[in-house]
Amino acid sequence: MMEKIQHSEVEVKGLKLHVAGIGTGSKAVLFLHGFPEIWYTWRHQMIAVANAGYRAIAFDFRGYGLSQQPAEPEKETMFDLVHEIVGLLDALGITKAFLVGKDFGAFPGHLTTAVHPERVAGIISLGIPFMLPGPSAVEGHLLLPKGFYITRWREPGRAEADFGRFPVKSVIRNIYTLFS
């Protein structure tokens, strides 16, 4: 069934995004991947959702997988991801979708729901409690265990050092096997 997932490139806000989709239902489910993942994380769920009569879509956020990286990623904000989600829905002709966000993908899902409720039929958040941007979200990392990847990799160069100890092929294979 994986071979039925179709891939395309969609331009949103000046960036080319890699989009995977399956199903032709009138209702759409947009899957938002976590970190350090890509659309592929959702492949099994996409097939199940399509078999249930929905249109299932997953994409690689800007700078992930096959999607284009912004010219100045350090200037990007969570609102850029919200605009990306809404822009993708527009480009695909979808007026309203169910959002499913996991890990990092839950944050822009929450914010899209708050800022554009007219575009969201419902939201499912996996692994991250609902949290709008603000002091609680910014300081949320302080509640995490010492050494947890989110806090550990905030330090410039730390993720590169951690991953650099292993062959690139092995790191990529393990990430996409363990996280999906």
UniProtKB/TrEMBL annotation:
Could you list this entry's UniProt keywords, alphabetically sorted: Hydrolase
List membrane-spanning regions: none
GO MF entry, a single one? hydrolase activity
Per UniProt, residues of the AB hydrolase-1 domain are: 28-133
Q: Which InterPro entries match?
A: AB_hydrolase_1, AB_hydrolase_fold, Epox_hydrolase-like
State the SUPFAM superfamilies in the record.
alpha/beta-Hydrolases (SSF53474)
Give the highest taxon in the source lineage. Answer: Eukaryota
Q: Which family does it belong to?
A: Belongs to the AB hydrolase superfamily. Epoxide hydrolase family.
Tell me what this protein is called. AB hydrolase-1 domain-containing protein
Q: Per the UniProt entry, what species is this protein from, by scientific name? A: Vigna angularis var. angularis
